[in-house]
Amino acid sequence: MVTKTEESQLNKLENQVDNGGGGAWEYLCLARKLKVRRSDKVLKYGLSILNDSRKRSSLGPDEWTLYEQVAVAAMDCHALDVAKDCISALQKKFPESKRVGRLEAMLLEAKGSWEDAEAAYSSLLEDNPFDQVIHKRRVAIAKAQGNISAAIEWLNKYLEIFMADHDAWRELAEIYVSLQMYKQAAFCYEELILSQPTVPLYHLAYADVLYTLGGLENLQTAKKYYSSTIDLSGGKNNRALFGICLVSCANKPNSGSLHLGKKSHCTHVFKKNSQNTHVMKKIPNLRMFGPSPRLTKAVIESPR
Domain tally for the chain? Predict the structure, then answer.
């Protein structure tokens, strides 16, 4: 995960290069180190170096790393001719490289040749069944084709091998939420909380899913996780604060609209943070209908 300091440093370098102050190579190295895919900038700055023979030769062995980086950025930007040229240069230098073979399969994928790409990935996995990138590319192919069931299948197979991949668990959870398969999504968020208990985002997402599932036990547990989100975020997460109000109302029969007593409870929840005043002003105009897929699916998918 990119820190604010690292992002600020990257933005500073980007502005410097855009304004003609140099530092294109430093920007590309930092983007690669942070695994940030600012593809348009990487393509622009990378080509400015590769097209200059003097700059290119000064890189030494890193020249080939840049070719790979630009090839991926070009595929992101659908500049497939550029990607093909970069991959061809790498193929000449490393004719037996599996890494280059992976790029060739990615190019087939970018062209929409799904069957050829799938065959290429399968062949590469026979040689190295633990290649994480290729496993993830198969998930991407399934999603690109709209085959969500296949994407779920590939993700589950991937997680059987790489159980510590937090991004994969989160991806699977979000797919389940989009399909309203909330019990399965809850399991994914439980895995994330077990492995990264101090990340408030996972506590919040888990609470949202439990609220959506409904039932007294789920609602009580959701309240606990909204509370832990508030603790982990220093009381500054409006979404979690309002989640406490939602759960409190849903726990009461015939909740209807937020009457005076319930508003008082919400006021107690929000009063610790003066930044929440604008939220409190909206409460009298809101109606709570308890946990339902239509309401809470919108809550889950709203910006955090």
Answer: 2
Q: Looking at the domain assignment, is residue 188 inside a domain?
A: no
The whole domain housing 295 covers 198-304
CA–CA separation, 75 vs 119, rounded Å?
A: 19
Q: At what angle do helices 132-144 and 148-161 cross, to 10 degrees?
A: 170
Q: Decide if 13 contacts 23 (C-beta within 8 A).
A: yes
Q: What is the pLDDT of residues 48-96, one digit of tens each?
A: 999 999 999 999 999 999 999 999 999 999 999 999 999 999 999 999 9
Q: Give start and end residues of each alpha helix (H) in the chain.
A: 4-18, 24-34, 39-50, 53-57, 62-76, 80-93, 98-110, 114-127, 132-144, 148-161, 166-178, 182-195, 200-213, 216-232, 238-250, 260-270, 277-282, 293-301
In a domain, 129, yes or no: no
The pTM score is 0.76
**Which pair of tokens denotes residue 140?**
């991407």
**Which tokens belong to 144?**
């690109």
Phi then psi for residue 98, to 5 deg, are: -70, -30
